[in-house]
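@channel sequence for tomorrow's demo:
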Amino acid sequence: MGIADKAKNAAEDALGKAKEVVGDVTGNDSLKAEGKADQAKASAKKTGEDVKDVFKG
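structure tokens (generated this afternoon):
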């Protein structure tokens, strides 16, 4: 996994966490759900990249 990919995934995860917190604080369930979805997407990408790294190495 390249450094750029890791940075993108970390940024997407952080943005998702921020959306979730803002949604929770403001009572916006849609934003909260969107934040959780962003985090899940970042996690899935990281897992996929980790699997590719295992087979490369």
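heads up for whoever presents: The helical segments are 3-26, 29-56.
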